Every structure is written in structure tokens, then in C-alpha cells.
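**User:** Here is a favour to ask of a fellow structure person. Please take any protein you like and set down a full record of it. No explanation is needed for now; the record alone will do.

**Assistant:**
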Amino acid sequence: MFTKAKNLETAFRHVRSFTLLVIIGCIGFCCFAIYKSYQLVDETQDKVYILASGKVLEAYASERKENIPVEARDHVASFHRFFFTLDPDDKVIQFNLVKALYLADGSAKAQYENLKESGFYSSIISGNISQQISVDTVQVDTDDYPYRFHCVASQRIIRSTSIVTRRLVTEGFLRTVSRSDNNPHGFLIERWTTLENKDVNVQNR
């Protein structure tokens, strides 16, 4: 009888130990699953999926300060492309200039008004002239705010009789503003000035 009781007590201890091990294992597994779930959520929140031309592209979110140099350079390059890309079509000119003026302050508007008053855009249309620009380098100093930039670009002015290549050098400052559809980078160009705009090559057609 005592042997049976002892066997029952031993069996009970084994069952209790096994049950405790199972409970501890379940708790450990649940904690691991919760940890991995939170980790997966954090990773997926840093990913952005973009639909472009029918293709899904994956991008990663990051802090704005990490992207300031890249975004600032692209903002300056985009402004110059819109401002200086011209074709002999009034609607194309207006479309590009409206986009450009959203990216800069009154200093760009003043240059636009001066060119308009001098008949520059009218001569583009009447002379069937196209103007293209290629931004070579954009340097942005992010150590001091507002950020100073220096842009070097090449212009091609295509006329019916010649193609003129010009060297364009500009500079200005960038300050941060709210992002919008018209200003996706969230910068505004200030005190924009042209340092150099001269012919470097003339090719007869």
C-alpha cells in the first residue's frame, strides 16, 4: 500500500514537472511570437510601395535629415529644368514656368518678369526656338541654415540655323517649407541669382 502511494506521489511530481515545463515553454513561445510580430510590424512600417508605370516598386522610409542633401540637390535641379526648358509653344512655356515658380520665391518671379518684359518668351515662340538644359552639378552646404547652393548647368538653344551651347552658373539659398503636390521636396529657393550665362560653343546647322 505504501509502495502504491509512493508511486502515485512520484507520478504526480513527474506530471507536475512536465506540466510546468509545458507552461513555461508556452509562455516563452508566446513572448517570442509577440516580439517577432512587433519586429515585423516595425519593418513593414518602414517600407513604402510605389506604383509606377504599372510596376510596384519598394522604397524604405527614413528620417528627413538623412535625405536633406539628396532632396535639396533634386529640388534645385528640378527648378532649373522647369525654368529653362522652353519650346515654341506658349502653353508649354507657361506649364513649365508655373511649376518652377512653385519651387522658388520672388527672386525667380522677378527674373521671369524681366525676361517677359524684354520679349524673351515672345522671341522663343516667333523664332521657333527650343531651349534645353542639362544640370551638371549641384552643391548644397547643409552645415548652415538656410542651405546655400551652387548650380552649374549647360544650356542648348536650338534655332533653325544654329545650336548654341551656353554655360549657366547660379546660386541661392534653400529654406524648408511644407511639402505639397506642387513642392514635393519641401524646399523653397530664395535669393536666386545668375552668376554666369555665356556662350561656349556655336554649331551651324
Remarks:
- DSSP finds five helices and six strands in the chain.
- The first helix runs from residue 2 to 45.
